[in-house]
Specification:
Strand order of the largest sheet: 3-2-1-4-5-6-12-9
Largest sheet: 8 strands, mixed
Shape: globular
Number of helices: 12
Strand content: 15-25%
Oligomer: single chain
Helix content: 25-40%
Radius of gyration: 18 Å
Length: 313
């Protein structure tokens, strides 16, 4: 089987960084056409810098990185430095990357790539707010039917919210973009908090990255040692959830995950529940299913895959 063509759309973020590394370590399954960045965990100037730092860590300065949207479609930007630190990649010592940022806007890259590649051959992998995807769909509706699948990290049902009592961060930052994507008719797979909170960076799992004895292994362990502190304190868990790599792991080993095909809508008007993922898990409405909503993961298999693939870099 040929490698799956994907675009990673991201706002790095330590967990985004691990997702990028997993993709770069998996060339048999993943053909990474480019990385588009979006404002989210930190502002756009930082996310595009961070994406290039991660590519340089992996020795992949050839990867094309694009800067996309610097603010949500219709709202002011909300960021998450309280989780990810001032840089978004707090933990390891960082540097100014030397690999170039592409001149083209990330939204235009998404549009042009979907028009250039054969219909149904490009998967979009959003790891942050869905602004770039929503903007591309608004600007070029002809590309919607050309998308093979969207596999995204975002939302929650049983785990409710992590930025408000009702909303998960990625969806909350740009709920209009999220609703636009979910109403598009594209095949969608969602990695909500319900599954990512089962993929915890326990001390033993972080040490396994460090034990690789490589630059990538040390960089990853240093990032995660910082990243997990917020969620360990908040939830009282043994480690922090590793959200975004679930997207890439699903493309490589879908058998590690399970979920349900359900209807998912996004609340865009209520001040109390803005950005809430209204997931009809129990099928109590007559709304047609529009997403595969993942609820469980084989965490041991997931971390084994991560450690093995990062060990290649």
């Amino acid at each position: 089987m040929s490698a799956r063509k994907i675009i990673i759309d991201t706002d790095p973020g330590q967990d985004d960084a691990v997702a990028i590394l997993l993709a770069l370590g998996s060339p048999e399954e993943i053909d990474l056409l480019g990385i588009t960045t979006v404002a989210g965990n930190v502002p756009l100037a930082r996310t595009q810098t961070n994406a290039r730092i991660v590519c340089e860590v992996a020795g992949r300065a050839d990867v094309k990185v694009f800067a996309g949207s610097d603010a949500p479609l219709e709202r002011a930007l909300v960021t998450a430095e309280h989780v990810h630190g001032r840089t978004g990649l707090d933990g390891p010592e960082l540097w100014e990357p030397t690999m170039p940022l592409q001149a083209q806007n990330g939204v235009d890259f998404i549009i042009d790539t979907l028009r250039a590649e054969a219909p149904g051959t490009v998967t979009l992998c959003p790891l942050g707010p869905l602004t770039n995807i929503g903007a591309a769909f608004r600007r070029a509706p002809d590309i919607i039917d050309r998308v093979q699948e969207i596999v995204l990290m975002g939302g929650a049902y049983f785990e409710v919210g992590n930025i408000t009592p009702a909303a998960e961060f990625n969806i909350f930052v740009d709920p209009e973009a999220a609703q636009e994507v979910l109403a598009s008719g594209v095949k969608i797979t969602m990695m909500p908090l319900d599954v990512t909170h089962k993929a915890l960076t326990t001390p033993a799992r972080v040490e396994a990255f460090r034990a690789l004895g490589t630059r990538v292994g040390a960089f990853t362990a240093e990032m995660l040692a910082f990243f997990e502190r917020f969620d360990v304190e908040k939830y009282g868990s043994e480690g922090g959830p590793l959200h975004d790599p679930c997207v890439i792991a699903y493309l490589i080993r879908p058998e590690l995950f399970s979920g349900r095909q359900i209807n998912v809508e996004i609340e865009t008007t209520s001040p109390l529940t803005l950005g809430m993922t209204v997931a009809d898990w129990w099928g109590v409405t007559d709304r047609a299913p529009n997403a595969l909503f993942i609820g469980d993961v084989d965490a041991g298999g997931f971390f084994d895959l991560l450690t093995e693939r990062l060990g290649r870099l």
